[in-house]
Amino acid sequence: MIQTVLFVILTVLAAFSLVVLLVRTAYCFVIGRKKKITPKHLIRLKKTMVFFAATMILNAGLVTVSQLTASTPRIVDENGNTPENSIAELRQLELNGRKQWISLRGWDKNAPVLLFLAGGPGGTQMAAVRHELAELEKHFVVVNWDQPGSGKSYYAERIKNITPQTYIEDGHALTEYLKERFSQDKIYLLGESWGSALAIFLAHEYPESYHAVIGTGQMVDFAETERMDYAKAIEIAQSKGDTALIKRLIANGEPPYYGDDVTWKSAVYLNYLSAYMASNPNIQNPGYNTFRDIGSSEYGLLDKVNFLRGIIYTYNHVYQQLYTIDMRTDYTKLEVPVYFFLGRYDVNAPTVLAEEYMQVLDAPDKKIVWFEHSGHSPWINEPVKFVNEVLSCFSGSTIEQ
């Protein structure tokens, strides 16, 4: 937080000094042509230049230090001690020639590996998972991956070159790394929202690498989801007499959207639905703790900026590439067990689509686990039950409530 405050202060000072520098430079140019410039004018101009340069250098140094010192906290027990065989790492890997970051956290390095796939595309939940699902670290080596175009991996690939296949290829490469490093034949997958779709893609392509898959906030048909979300937002707005929002939605037209403003058009109804869920008294712990997450130690100052850039730019580029996908026709047979963790009040990813998908899905084992006090994010809304259900599906054991 101190680094962030200093960064903001230095940025404001740099911006202010730049304005002053431009004004004084223009002034000196004008009076210089009239031959009225004096040494005093030049001294003031020089001081402003030095001050601007100093703020920029200090800011660059601050950003560099913050990136180099970013880390994930050590594992500690109830007495503040670190278990002897624990792991808490923040590591950069090269996956198919693309440099990307992962965090690895667990009380026992020999525990099964669980790879968490964040929502988005373009989202990073490296810190959020540590905060919300720390209990899983007692049972698994929990791996969080900042996918290309998100958070710490924002520069892994040029945004314009990222496709869904990019994530499949790099997800497979990461899986192979984890299998080799921890000497395991298979790992577990847990995907949230967009990550739930990516988990299905990976399990479909490489079933030999995964024990089982959990999808939460399960995405099924991307184009249909957007149309249903748009219609739901209009329905809610009409019931509340929110004519301003209705006008904005009508002006944007029905999705799916294409082009450079997908993020902003989608945000009109997605943010409205998120606010609607947050106000639902039946949903526990509604909403993300964005300020806590973005301020976490895993992210340097540049990562914090890219935390937001990924949500805007990567999402905009990649999401419109997903509109042709419908799990109900494209991924009906999987060779691994599949479990959907669905919030009863999820209006972001309509649960009716996940129910339809489950009906046609052919898998060794499958089921829907309902979370009666959740919206789109059961892992945040009901984290204790979520962990218990993960253990029930993945390892047949439970933790104490």
Characterize the structure shown.
The chain is α/β, with parallel strands linked by helices. β5, α5 and β6 (210-216) form a beta-alpha-beta unit. The protein contains 14 helices and eight strands. The protein has helices at 2-33, 39-69, 126-132, 164-181, 194-205, 222-240, 243-252, 262-278, 290-294, 301-319, 327-330, 351-360, 378-381, 383-394; strands spanning 87-95, 98-106, 113-117, 141-146, 187-192, 210-216, 338-343, 366-371. It folds into two domains: 2-69; 87-222 and 291-394, Rossmann fold, CATH 3.40.50.1820. It is globular, with a radius of gyration of 24 Å. Residues 397-401 have low confidence and may be disordered.
Q: What does the secondary structure layout of this molecule look like, with pairings?
A:
Layout: H1 2-33, H2 39-69, E1 87-95, E2 98-106, E3 113-117, H3 126-132, E4 141-146, H4 164-181, E5 187-192, H5 194-205, E6 210-216, H6 222-240, H7 243-252, H8 262-278, H9 290-294, H10 301-319, H11 327-330, E7 338-343, H12 351-360, E8 366-371, H13 378-381, H14 383-394
Parallel strand pairs: 3-4, 3-5, 5-6, 6-7, 7-8
Antiparallel strand pairs: 1-2, 2-4
